[in-house]
Amino acid sequence: MLIYDQIIESININTTIYNGFNYNETFFLDIETTGLSPKNSLIYLIGILYFNKEWHLKQWFLDNAGDEENMLKDFTSFLTKSNLKNVIHFNGTTFDCKFIDDHCEIYGIDFSFANINQIDLYKTFSKYKKALSLDSLKQKALEYAYGINRKDKLNAKELISKYKEYLLNKKTENEEQLLLHNFEDIINLPTLTSICSLDDLYNNKYLITNLEFVETSDSAFVTLNMENLLPIFFNGNYYFHIKPISCEQFSDNKTKTDNYEYKLLFGKIKKCTLKFFYKDYKNYYYLPNEDMAIHKSMATFIDKDKKIKATKDNCYTKVTDTFISLPDKPFLQKKYTTDDDSIFEEIKIFKDDNNSSYIRLSELNKKDFLISFINYIFK
Where do runs of H (alpha helix) occur along the chain? Predict the structure, then answer.
């Protein structure tokens, strides 16, 4: 068994991800095995990232296939002595933690992850796969979505082959490749963990502390302060471009982040006539001559030959005002439906003939409206 412990000088991490966990008692975990079945496979590499005055990345490497028991004893003893009570991992609930528990049971080691609080990033990402337009939930695919570039290029089968070769020839090159893969799996977890803040945003468990509206000659933006750090790949997507203006990270001498400032860049401003669609079209009639829809309670006074039952496509009224455009792709894939009783009763979305979306510029600089709009985006 070989043990490596190195200090990591820079970690992309912040206190908000811990969901109440004490970060001094929390570690990131990833393991490498010779197969998927705990009954027929070895754990040949365990890696953790933890904070003790400085960030440490510690790896237990099985250089002798017969030494797995001692490796697990040393690993579990370290967790206990270090008072590490919380773990963050990627699919560790069904793989990493279960694998370790099963092998500890085989060797009679008194340890279980049942006694450790867990955040499984895979489960969090799974909830928002469709909403975030993710094609894959593999860790490398998510890293790519975050703009993370890895030096390691090995896949699961190649890793196992490299380890088997290492057991035969003990080549340093093989060992370095295996350690690198595990290193990058772990070191990228803090960045991926920022997705945990989406749960708070989705459930309105966040606070907007300040809002400021700024209008330019042809566009508008809003600066806001929030207590939550937004997941990195929110930037540049959907309704607006989110540009963090300042974002404090914690280190050994900064353990709390109180505020994050963002700049929300909206689209172009223009004065025009747009359509506002009523969602309950079955309660409306369309007037072809006026090119507008009216409620059935008013339609009783209109001649039958001048009205027809409204459809989704013509149940609208026209409004002339100054609007600001929104991108076509809605945030978190939220779509207008006739059963949607949510924010459309508070925020009016207007459409042009190309079905592009707009909101009234006059509403954008109202704090209550902005809070409602931001709630809508994050829901």
Answer: 68-81, 96-107, 121-127, 139-145, 156-169, 172-187, 189-192, 197-202, 296-299, 361-364, 367-378
